[in-house]
Amino acid sequence: MDDGITPRDLKIETLKEGLKGIRKRYLECASSKKKEICYAVAANELVSMFGSLMPRVLHDPEVRYYILYGVDQLLVYDADTDRIRLTSIEEAVNIILNST
User: Fold this and answer.
1) What is the average per-residue pLDDT within 79-91?
2) Which domain of life is it from (predicted)?
3) Percent of the chain with pLDDT over 90
4) Measuring CA to CA, which of 21, 48, 87, 95 is 20 to 30 A from 15?
């Protein structure tokens, strides 16, 4: 991944552990508090985890699904099932546009 200043190599296992932990804390929080508060806490954890790379991280409002995009690859991750896939942007677009 590249934040425009310095390219960085991120370890997949470290990413999975961090994102899975954020999802777990979100679910624990959401069981007793408003989801908006829990989302704010999760968003803060994502910023802490990714820093200047945060604009290259997409996620759903409940921080279960993630897409991290680099120069030529996407990392797609489901924090509940712990499933991950690396794919090219071209392949992802073709899959999405041809799935109906």
Assistant:
1) 94
2) Archaea
3) 67
4) 95
Which H helix or E strand runs over 57?
strand 57-59
The residue behind tokens 């993630």 is: 66
CA atoms within 13 A on the CB side of 84: 16
Question: How many CA atoms lie less than 13 Å away from 22 in the CB half-sphere?
Answer: 28
Degrees to nearest 5, angle at CA 28 with 18 and 69: 30
Residues 65 and 78 sit within 8 Å (Cβ to Cβ):
yes
Which is it for strands 74-78 and 57-59: parallel, antiparallel or unpaired?
unpaired
* Contacts with 40 (C-beta within 8 Å, 6 or more apart), sequence order: none
Give the pTM. 0.84
Cα separation, 38 vs 34, whole angstroms: 7
In which element (H, E) is residue 16 found?
helix 12-30
